[in-house]
Fold:
Amino acid sequence: MQRTDFGDMTCSIARTLDIAGEPWSPLIIRDVWVGIRRFDELQRDLGISRKVLTERLTWLVGHGVLERRQYSDRPPRHEYALTAKGLELTEVLMAISAWGDRWTAGAAGPPTLLRHRACGEHVHAEVRCSHCGEPLHGDDVEVDEGPGARR
Amino acid sequence: MQRTDFGDMTCSIARTLDIAGEPWSPLIIRDVWVGIRRFDELQRDLGISRKVLTERLTWLVGHGVLERRQYSDRPPRHEYALTAKGLELTEVLMAISAWGDRWTAGAAGPPTLLRHRACGEHVHAEVRCSHCGEPLHGDDVEVDEGPGARR
DNA sequence: GTAGTAAGTTCCTTCAAGCAACTGACTGGA
DNA sequence: TCCAGTCAGTTGCTTGAAGGAACTTACTAC
Structure:
């Protein structure tokens, strides 16, 4: 989808960007997540060209992030839904959104709020350590070689 | 940097993507984060064209994600470093990386591992609720209008 | 039989990506 | 003093993806 192929870099960030890193894709995934599931709705909401939207949807379906399903037989009508793989990407979106709220919202405040159903509060996403549960910041970690490292 | 301007959409995801959503930017930020700070090192490591790298670095410096500093006077030499704003983006990168490890790494396993200095373990990023600390998944939340919503 | 909707497809233009070569300021060695 | 090398870009050319608008197909509703 972009000129340089990120898919075979030995890096989980590059590989993720290869699947969903093209600038429109996160917005498409967000829209499907919040219930905007149909071609024309997506096109109107995003202001994306129909051609590019077709390409992105096909790509995301092909990579198992979205699935396309028929909700009407006659006339044949389709909508898009997140797969389990796609639904997990929304955690990345929540982290992106938290950063945007903090650094780009300005005095007006964040354009949207997230309500956590379990606790009922307006919350934001926090990135935490899977082992000890403490907040995980950029300078709290070291990067080591993993089993999938190359050469 | 892309054809459609995301910067004035009323959405923290779009605004974040406007700053750092072009496909190379997250990889540049990751590289600076792990210590690849100089122009030629970045160019070699990423295989990015020098022209595009120049544009991206200038853009990221202009948006306060990176800062350019001179580490040698004669000859004048520069390197790039993360600002506080940029360092917080690495939390998003860790979330992206966790998704990539889970869904794209395959049998070989993840190419890199993250060691959390505080607890000493190899860990991955988890997105959690800022209020109750429970894991935050895509279907655990509702999206409400925030104070910065438009119209 | 006309209007409308959903989900694309086709065509054309323009702008950004990729690539390679060049520049300029300096260092270090023969 | 000359040559090679390094760092940090800049310039110019080509190609391909993005954006936009119009068209298509298959149906429904009036």
